[in-house]
Amino acid sequence: MFFHEIVDHQKYGISDEDIEKAIYEDQNTFTLPGHHPVSSHIEMKLHAFLGL
User: DSSP letters of 18-32?
Assistant: First the structure.
């Protein structure tokens, strides 16, 4: 089971390059095409931006 949320990534300080890197680093964690895990770098940005 996994949860997902569609967000405007640029609103949260996540660049297109951040997303490209997350896709590149993905090791086929999810079996659904086009779904990739959040990279540690993106996770860090979300924590900082959202104050978690």
Answer: HHHHHHHH--S-SSS
